[in-house]
């Protein structure tokens, strides 16, 4: 089987909001496939419309927060869950039920000190929890997946990393008036590819070049998101603006 044979299914929607039902459907499908699955969430503006709906479903009991264990992709070094700007802080702000899951130990945070031993233990803990049933992903303008910046070996598991300049620029508003962090702990590409189902979302024109590279460039470290084409069970959800450079915009699949 070639890399191309494992190309993700791609669906193009009128806008980001239209993709939320599909994301909620992916969560429900994961809950149906196995008891108490481990679900990996992603941070970033891409997922804010999803988290608004997901939080409401949890708060109304339409989805039971005891039915799954949650984790996420990455954390800025030195950002414990209660520090503004951090990923867990964002997740809890966007989806308050994650706060009680943190207290109950069913939201598993990425170690924010980036200690290699702790990161290894974190990866092992995810495996003991059954491994990721579903991992949601965004994509950076530079083609990063989680904080695997261009040039990062696909073989790495959780590791510490320096953030690319474009990644720091994109995070500037989030940390203003402070400088954005320089370093983070992140799931590696190998950690991400170990998930049984991957769903990547990209919305807006700023993501169109990265989406084209992810889908069309040779698979390799120059564009970490091309790793998705090594997976074999992945779905890409785009809006028309993000799909525009990839020759997909003329034939929206849904939405
Ligand atoms: C965040 C993460 C990053 C983001 C990406 C897109 O946990 O892993 O890879 O998914 O930078 O960020 P937004 O959604 O803000 O455009």
Description:
With 255 residues, this protein is of the alpha/beta class. It contains ten helices and ten strands. It has a seven-stranded parallel beta sheet with strand order 1-10-9-6-2-3-5. Strands 4-8-7 form a three-stranded antiparallel beta sheet. Helix 1 crosses helix 2. The longest helix is centred in the N-terminal third of the chain and has 18 residues. The relative contact order is 0.20. Bound molecules: fructose -6-phosphate. Fructose -6-phosphate binds next to loops.
For the largest beta-sheet, the strand count, sense and barrel status come to:
7 strands, parallel
Count every beta strand, where a strand is a DSSP E run of 2 or more residues.
Answer: 10
Q: Could you state the order of secondary-structure elements as H and E?
A: EHEHEEHHEHEEHHEHEHEH
Strands side by side in the biggest sheet: 1-10-9-6-2-3-5
Bound molecules: fructose -6-phosphate
Tally of DSSP helical segments: 10
Give the N-terminus to C-terminus distance in angstroms. 31 Å
The assembly state of the depicted protein chains is: single chain
* Secondary-structure class: alpha/beta
**Low-confidence stretches at least 5 residues in length (pLDDT < 50)?**
none
From the spread of the alpha carbons, the general shape counts as globular
């Amino acid at each position: 089987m070639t890399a191309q044979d494992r190309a993700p299914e791609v669906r193009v929607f009128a806008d980001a909001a239209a993709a939320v039902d599909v994301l909620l459907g992916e969560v429900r499908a994961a809950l149906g496939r196995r008891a108490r699955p481990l679900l990996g969430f992603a941070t970033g503006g891409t997922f804010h419309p999803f988290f608004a709906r997901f939080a409401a479903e949890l708060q109304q009991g339409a989805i039971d927060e005891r039915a799954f264990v949650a984790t996420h992709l990455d954390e800025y070094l030195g950002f414990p869950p209660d520090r503004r700007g951090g990923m867990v802080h964002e997740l809890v702000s966007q989806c308050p039920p994650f706060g009680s899951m943190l207290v109950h130990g069913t939201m598993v945070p990425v170690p924010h000190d980036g200690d290699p031993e702790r990161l290894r233990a974190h990866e092992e803990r995810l495996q003991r929890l059954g491994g990721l049933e579903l991992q949601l992903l965004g994509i950076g303008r530079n083609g990063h997946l989680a904080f695997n910046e261009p040039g990062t070996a696909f073989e790495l598991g959780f590791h510490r990393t320096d953030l690319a300049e474009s990644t720091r620029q994109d995070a500037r508003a989030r940390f203003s008036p402070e400088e954005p962090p320089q370093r983070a702990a992140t799931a590696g590409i190998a950690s991400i590819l170990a998930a049984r189902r991957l769903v990547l979302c990209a919305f807006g024109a700023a993501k169109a070049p990265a989406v084209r590279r992810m889908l069309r460039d040779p698979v390799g470290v120059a564009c970490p998101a091309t790793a998705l084409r090594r997976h074999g069970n992945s779905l890409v959800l785009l809006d028309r603006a993000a799909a525009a450079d990839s020759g997909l915009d003329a034939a929206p699949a849904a939405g």
